[in-house]
Amino acid sequence: MRRGRFTGYWLMLPAVVWLGLFFVIPFLSLLATSLYDPEGSVLTGYDVTYRFANFTDALGEFWQPLWRSLWYAGVATVICLVLGYVLAYAIAFKAGRWRTLLLVLVIAPFFTSFLVRTLSWKLILADDGFVVDALQTVHLMGEDGRLLATPVAVIAGLVYNFLPFMVLPLYASLEKIDGRLIEAAGDLYASPTRGFLKVTLPLSMPGVVAGTLLTFIPAAGDYINARLLGSPNQRMVGNVIQDLFTSTGDYAAAGALSVILMAIIVVMVMVYIRKAGTEDLL
What we know:
- With 282 residues, the protein is mainly α.
- The chain contains 13 helices and no strands.
């Protein structure tokens, strides 16, 4: 009886150890780094002086790439939501015997590395590529126009790389919806649009919330798409943090900027989940 009383705690132990080793300790280390003395260096070492002004300094100096990251991630998430919802809906309700094949195609990009997938977009959007040629042919782009090194290229890369993270949770939610509920809405003379808004969309909200979080959070911290498809004018906060850690050696600013990004995302996620009415995900 007594042994069974502690069974749940023993089962939780691996997860607690995992979180402690790979989340709590790294986070505390990052927090300590953000409070380093900025006068330190890699050669002389850093001292934790609890200088909280590192946060205001980092925010004042790097607010533009921070805002740009949130903007790019937000736009990419909205595009992924629209595209992903249509695709997930088609797979869940219309694909029939092709459902498995379409799901495999959704996850097929994961068979190659993130870097290779992003580099492929560099070729697709190249100045002499077929996309630019087609847009110039239909006069949607000037003769000297280009896609690479623009926000369009960076957001396109984010959409492509994170679209599966939106489709899969949406499909999981849509696939669970009882088709008889949708039929009942039609029997009660609801139009297809009204039936979708009153039945399908509310029941799929857990998938919408999960998909937007799984897309927005990694997109906001991404740095590969901006590095390969953008220019210095499209630098995201991930690029700034990488440069501060690896090139400049300004660990205090890099740590402070990382903590600020994490805090902003946590606050946005909490507000979003509460507004979406899915507090159960917390």
